[in-house]
From TrEMBL:
Residues 18-216 form the Class II aldolase/adducin N-terminal domain. It comes from Tessaracoccus flavescens. This is Class II aldolase/adducin N-terminal domain-containing protein. Pfam families: Aldolase_II. It comes from the Bacteria.
């Protein structure tokens, strides 16, 4: 018995090591995750150990993980009972093991609990999001990936999303008579990939990316126009007009080839929630440097808020913030959206979040921001 126990401890220690390796490897590659995006969990002995919000996958350590009892989380998914406040946080509080020490699990905890594999990694990858942001992603996913992945239409975060994943997994099992696959594609959001060791998860992610990239590469590569050289002055004019301290800007190949007025993220709307959270739902369009102040003023009148990101189509993208770090994350997130939209269009067409979906994230973020401020963090 004693020997059995110590084997269990060694096995779970190894699982934790493998999870941290996966999180750090994929989390430090901006093609897979940016800023605090994505999350990771390991489960054994009826307990889920998950990355808290406010940490990054790239720097995740084993002792950051928050332990939560799985049966309690699963109960929250099937229960129709009304709870006080946010239902995900209520479930997390009920499920916690010991003192969380101020760490808060993310809004995405519930879907980790319902996937049976030991290791679960959730990412917002650029290549895979060309498929999740495709206008007919479900059909394309089936054509490219067959029964290796399930598709889940865009659903509001938290309990509704976890319930929808659960429903699609059950529908797959009823349809095929096989367990649901280890890859989940979430429309306009990202992927969940699971496995029972590091190599299984890493190989599945690599296969998924390679398969989608091959489909993108079957289409003609976009033409990259020459650099027009007034990026810095456009960016500075935007910073002054927005009255902010920090600016980050780019006129790289992505900007020059994928930021025309027809680009999804430029004029049709945000592709994924991260874009809304960090870069704002819509950029202000700057057609010429003389118009910057007027363009910012009319954007504010139309949207009731200041722009975070500005686009001079085909020339320059710039983002403002209170700090260099905030401006850089906003810019990076918007450039990611340009890449995702460009590649989804290469696959046949992109889908942007609709007004209701967008509005939910805009107000939901405001709510979570207010909570942070009132908590003094
Ligand atoms: Zn996510």
């Amino acid at each position: 018995m004693k020997r059995f126990m110590s084997q269990e401890v060694t096995m779970s220690a190894q699982l934790h090591d493998e999870l941290i390796r996966l999180a750090n490897e994929f989390g430090s590659d901006e093609a897979y995750a940016r800023a605090g995006g994505g999350n990771a969990s390991v489960k054994h002995g009826g307990v889920l150990y998950i990355k808290p919000s406010g940490t990054t996958l790239a720097t995740l350590r084993d002792n950051d993980l928050v332990p939560l009892r799985i049966p309690v989380l699963l109960e929250a998914l099937v229960s129709d009972e009304e709870v006080d406040g946010d239902p995900v946080m209520a479930a997390a509080t009920a499920a916690r093991v010991g003192d969380p020490g101020g760490r808060r699990p993310s809004v995405e905890i519930l879907f980790h609990a319902l996937i049976p594999d030991s290791l679960v990694l959730h990412l917002h990858p650029l290549v895979a999001n060309a498929l999740t942001c495709h206008e007919d992603g479900r059909a394309l996913a089936e054509r490219l990936l067959g029964n290796e992945a399930i598709w889940v239409d865009y659903t509001d975060p938290g309990v509704p999303l976890a319930k929808e994943i659960h429903r699609e997994r059950q529908a797959f099992e009823a349809r095929t008579g096989h367990p649901a696959p280890a890859i989940t594609l979430m429309g306009n959001h990202g992927i969940i990939v699971s496995g029972n060791n590091r190599d299984e998860v890493a190989q599945r992610i690599t296969w998924l990316s390679a398969t989608i990239q091959a489909a993108i590469d079957e289409t003609p590569a976009p033409v990259v126009p020459q650099r027009a050289d007034d990026g810095a002055s456009v960016a500075e004019a935007f910073r002054v007009a927005a009255g902010r301290d920090a600016i980050a800007w780019s006129n790289d190949d992505v900007v020059r080839s994928a930021s025309s007025l027809s680009a999804a993220a430029v004029s049709r709307g945000p592709l994924i929630p991260d874009q809304i959270v960090y870069a704002g739902s819509f950029p202000v369009i700057l057609e010429g440097i003389d118009d910057v102040e007027a363009a910012v003023a009319s954007y504010e009148a139309e949207h009731g808020r200041q722009p975070i990101t500005a686009v001079a189509p085909g020339q320059c993208v710039a983002s403002v913030g209170d700090t260099d770090k905030a401006a850089t994350i906003a810019l990076g997130t918007f450039l990611d959206a340009l890449v995702v939209g460009r590649d989804a269009d290469r696959l046949g067409g992109s889908r942007v979040l609709n007004e209701r979906e967008r509005h939910f994230i805009e107000t939901w973020e405001a709510e979570s921001y207010r909570q942070q401020v009132s908590a003094g963090s």
